[in-house]
Description:
Layout: H1 4-36, H2 41-90, H3 93-98, H4 101-113, H5 116-143, H6 145-152, H7 155-192, H8 194-199, H9 203-256, H10 261-303, E1 324-331, E2 347-354, E3 359-364, H11 370-377, E4 385-390, E5 393-394, H12 400-405, E6 407-410, H13 421-426, H14 434-444, H15 447-450, H16 470-482, E7 488-492, H17 500-513, E8 518-522, E9 534-539, E10 542-547, H18 549-555, H19 558-567, H20 577-582
Parallel strand pairs: 3-8, 3-9, 6-7, 7-8
Antiparallel strand pairs: 1-2, 1-4, 4-5, 9-10
Amino acid sequence: MPYKGWVALAxxxxxTVAFLGPLRPKLVQLAIDRHIxxxxxxxxxxxxxxxxxxxxxxxxxxxxxxxxxxxIGQHAIYDLRTKxxxxxxxxxxRFFDRTPxxxxxxxVTSDVESLSQVLSAGVVTILGDLFRLVFIGxxxxxxxxxxxxxxxxxxxxxxxxxxxxxxxxxxQYRETRVQVARLNAFLQEHITGMxxxxxxxxxxxxxxxxxxxxxxxxxxxxxxxxxxxxxWPAIDLIASTALGLVIWFGGVQAMTGTLTLGVLIxxxxxxxxxxxxxxxxxxxFNTLQSAMAGAERIFxxxxxxxxxxxxxxxxxxxxxxxxxxxxxVWFSYDPMPADGQEPNWVLRDxxxxxxxxxxxxxxxxxxxxxxxxxxxxxxxxxxxxxxxxVDGVDVRQMRLxxxxxxxxxxxxxxxxxSGSVLRNITLDDPRIPRERVEEAVRLIGADAFIxxxxxxxxxxxxxxxxxxxxxxxxxxxxxxxxxxxxEILVLDEATSSVDTETEHVIQxxxxxxxxxxxxxxxxxxxxTIQHADxxxxxxxxQIREQGTHQELLALGGLYxxxxxxxxxxxxxxxPRRDQVDAx
Length: 583
């Protein structure tokens, strides 16, 4: 629709070409019957001149049409691919949890590309070929309606063959697209996880699995080729039969004197021209079937919009203080059962408050629900019951961009994009000056390793940051979170994968960074959270204990057990209860 004016222009040019093509045999017929037969040389020269002009006009318009339709198609493909990617970006994490990445890549790449030919030239060309058939039919019936009927006598057979081909190929293109998506999903997953495949010596088994998927793709494609191998010879045979009938009946009429030689020659040309757009339509039909299979999958993705709803009247916080409150929060990653049964709750009636400027640590065994609290605060997922509030405002009443603008997040599994160190810190945000980046780097202590890189801030970290160590990637993630100067800082196991020296550097920086910010810290190393204002101890989705480090040790519950398990192998054993009480 954005290019409807250009499409109209392309349609006019195609219509003109569709008329000029059938005009040529008519000019040949007039040249033979009116000038060659009677020996009119001057008239013949005029007809030849008209033929040359028609050919020049047809060639020039064909160039304009070809370039214009391709220009329209490429712009439309660009728009569609952008729309699909924008749609994917809007989806919540729950969508990515159950959708293989390989399938999404297939949608944005090969499925969109399958529409390229249709949007580039297909639709306009199909309309042009249809009108060309109309013009050819008009000229044929105007010349000799009997021979026109002889030419069209084979059309029922051709129509039946085309409908049969349509049904078979459409099904097969769907199956081929499914197999392409399976292939992409397998490759994406196993190339990303190649380290695990090699570590456990699974190369032979994974190769067998790949061969099975690859063979399914090959078989699906071969079936498509089989139907084409039947269809094209059938079309050629039908077209040749029609041409033979024209030559037979027209030749008999010409020998008896009821048909002129010019009309017979023109009809032979029309018979060939008539089946040329039909062949083109069959070819376009092939492209159309492929495009329809891809379009079904693209539109299925676009129709599945699971994006979190934005409030009609979003609440705006003029100045974020950083007060966080979880109020009777229940959450499950599974959808709510339709039969009214209770889902598998990950959080159960969780309530706590982090006052502005406080550091609240969250500890607990794996699966206790610690990371889920972060996901709900950032609204990666929607709570089923209860409320999550920032400065007293439910996060569901805030625009996602406004909410996340005030929160800095550092994860255990750091993701870096291919590109420079500077790009991975600023994410190409022009509002972040180089001076702020360098200041944050010094504050974190990342300047020591950045200065040693060959190109310093312009050093290419490569895909997923493979040119850096895990500790260096962790430091960059701290810098990336802090250059945005968030009011709320969230650390999810942020120091669990760094060495002791790097952890010491980070801890020293954090003492300054956490001042004046509300911080939620998830940690396995209890040494990193001993100075937190409050520690929440989670167990099976519930907050079982909360207090300061010393209060929780004195309580002698879950936290003390975690502390003793973590430090029992150290030379200095955990303090006894009476020692803690005395302290």
